[in-house]
Design goal:
Length: about 400
């Protein structure tokens, strides 16, 4: 009798979950299809074919994210609707070396494609290059997910891993961008208001405004680069990018793990979800930020590999925190690991900001001067420090996977 009383309520719950998946997948797929239309027609209608390359990098990335994750969610929904057993996470992903090799191959093919770019071939490049960009942006994060899943996912729900990946790539990034934009506008408004109260601040605002107008009028980015080297601009960027953004992103990135059931969830499951969420976040950033400077695309995407390791490692840290809070009732552990994740994320961002400012300074300085040598030395030291941070994060990730594997 108890079984009969439970059966009528089991199906509606399953259908509600399937309906939610389809409800999420529909707008994602629609946005992806719209981006595909722009991707197809932008190079044909653009006045400057070279500009269409960057536009198609954006449209191609949005199309891949929308259609890719939308199709994955539809597949999950249909499988659940047909009552098919969830595929283990270990069977969803090829070996990690497949994604690592694909990442390197995409970098090589992207470099070759940009090397043949010219006024005559720009439209063709606008269709081909975004493919290599999307593959490079996606394969590097998936390499870490595959490494963890194939060691921990023999009994893990593959659908849950895909949901965590989709949350990290689309859900958390959407909320993070919204909050970051709101807070950024508030901070800028407060800063501008405070500066207008002092004569020196008002003069500085007029100077920055004049520089922006001159740069736009002359179509000369060097004026904007000079503005970016101003100490007050660097300080503002450090405050926002190295303090505000890490707090927001580490709060939202692995929030999917917070809703894990307190019973039946293993540490290996929570780790997989956290790693997948961090990798999803890195996929979004790689796709939308990695193509900002096409002239140095290979360098940018190679450096994005370090940011990917950072996101995956902090995702593992936060997964451990949420598991301790939800399953072990140790909420203090969540607070401690949250502080560690924010600190590491902030340290990474701060190093990247200062390194970028030193790179701009070297580019503007005269060759073979003491200023150039000093800026170059500082840049090398900062780059070496970032490499050390990436190695440390990677080692922490591998250690977490091995510890979770031992617990199995």
């Amino acid at each position: 009798m108890n079984r009969e009383s439970l059966e009528p309520t089991a199906a509606p719950v399953s259908r509600v979950r399937v309906g939610v998946l389809f409800l999420i997948a529909a707008p994602l797929s629609l946005c992806g299809l719209c981006a595909t239309v722009f991707y197809a027609f932008t190079p044909l209608t653009a006045n400057n074919a070279a500009d269409s390359i960057y536009s198609n990098v954006v449209f191609g990335s949005l199309a891949a994210l929308g259609i890719g994750f939308g199709s994955a969610l539809v597949w999950q929904g249909l499988s659940a609707w047909r009552a098919h057993a969830a595929r283990p996470a270990a069977r969803l992903f090829p070996p990690a070396w497949f994604f690592g090799g694909g990442f390197v191959l995409a970098l090589v093919l992207g470099a070759i494609t940009m090397a043949i770019n010219s006024d005559q071939s720009a439209r063709i490049v606008a269709y081909i290059f975004p493919v290599w960009h999307v593959l490079a942006a996606t394969f590097a994060p998936l390499m870490f997910v595959a490494f963890a899943a194939r060691r921990l996912g023999a009994a893990a729900d593959g659908r849950a891993v895909l949901r965590a990946l989709a949350w990290g790539a689309l859900g958390s990034t959407t909320l993070a961008l919204l909050l970051e934009a709101i807070i950024g506008v508030i901070i800028i408004g407060i800063a501008v208001f405070a500066l207008t109260l002092t004569p020196a601040g008002a003069a500085l605002l007029e100077q920055l405004g004049a520089q922006v107008e001159a740069s736009l009028a002359a179509d000369d980015p060097s004026v904007l680069l000079e503005m970016l080297r101003q100490p007050i601009v660097i300080a503002g960027a450090l405050f926002y990018l190295a303090l505000i953004i890490p707090v927001i992103e580490e709060t939202l990135k692995t929030l999917v793990v917070a809703f894990a059931a307190s019973r039946g969830t293993r540490w290996a499951d929570a780790l997989l979800w956290g790693v997948a969420a961090g990798a999803g976040f890195a996929i979004f950033e790689n796709a939308l930020n990695g193509g900002a400077v096409l002239a140095a695309w290979n360098v940018t995407m190679s450096l994005r590999l370090g940011a990917t390791v950072m996101h995956v490692a902090t995702g593992a840290l936060m997964a451990r925190g949420w598991y301790a809070a939800r399953c072990e009732r140790r909420w203090s552990q969540l607070g401690l690991l949250y502080v560690v994740s924010v600190f590491f994320h902030a340290l990474w961002n701060a190093t990247a900001i200062v390194l970028s400012s030193r790179t701009l300074s070297v580019g503007a300085a005269a060759p073979l001067t003491w200023d150039t040598l000093a800026a170059t030395g500082i840049g090398i030291a900062l780059a070496s420090f970032q490499v050390m941070l990436a190695v440390f994060a990677g080692a922490g990730f591998v250690r977490a996977v091995r510890s979770a594997s031992t617990s199995l």
